[in-house]
C-alpha cells in the first residue's frame, strides 16, 4: 500500500513505524477519521472519500508521501 502525502489520520500523529506492515495494519484497523490536506475534509478534491485504500496512485490528487516506509531510495 502506498501512502499519499495529503492523507491525514489523527491516530498516527506522533507515532513512528519501522515496519511497513505495522503501519499498513494501523491504517486499516484505525477507527479514526481520515482527512485530506487539500480540502481539510473527509473527501479529496475529486469528492471521493479519503482512506488509505482509496488514496492510491491513479487518483488524480495522489502524491507519494516522502515518509512512506515502502518507498525505495534511489
Question: How does this structure look, described?
Answer:
It is a single chain. The protein has 74 residues and is low in regular secondary structure. It contains 1 helix and 2 strands; from the N terminus they run βαβ. It has one domain. Strands 1-2 form a two-stranded antiparallel sheet. The radius of gyration is 12 Å and the shape is globular.
Summarize the helix and strand pattern as letters. Answer: EHE
Kindly give the count of domains. Answer: 1
Helix content: 10-25%
- DSSP, total strands: 2
Q: Order of strands side by side in the largest beta sheet?
A: 1-2
The number of helices is 1
Cα-based radius of gyration, to the nearest Å: 12 Å
Mean pLDDT: 81
> How far is the N terminus from the C terminus?
19 Å
SS strand fraction: 5-15%
> Biggest sheet, in brief?
2 strands, antiparallel
Question: What are the key terms here?
Answer:
single chain, 74 residues, little secondary structure, two-stranded antiparallel sheet
Write the layout of secondary structure elements.
Layout: E1 7-9, H1 20-29, E2 34-36
Structure, briefly:
With 74 residues, the protein is low in regular secondary structure. It is 14% helix and 8% strand. The protein has one helix at residues 20-29; strands at residues 7-9, 34-36.
Amino acid at each position: 500500500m502506498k501512502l499519499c502525502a495529503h492523507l491525514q489520520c489523527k491516530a498516527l500523529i506522533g507515532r513512528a513505524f519501522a515496519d511497513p506492515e505495522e503501519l499498513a495494519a494501523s491504517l486499516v484497523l484505525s477507527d479514526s477519521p481520515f482527512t485530506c490536506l487539500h480540502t481539510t475534509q473527509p473527501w479529496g478534491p475529486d469528492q471521493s472519500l479519503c482512506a488509505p485504500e482509496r488514496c492510491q496512485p491513479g487518483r488524480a490528487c495522489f502524491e507519494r508521501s516522502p515518509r512512506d516506509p515502502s518507498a525505495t531510495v534511489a
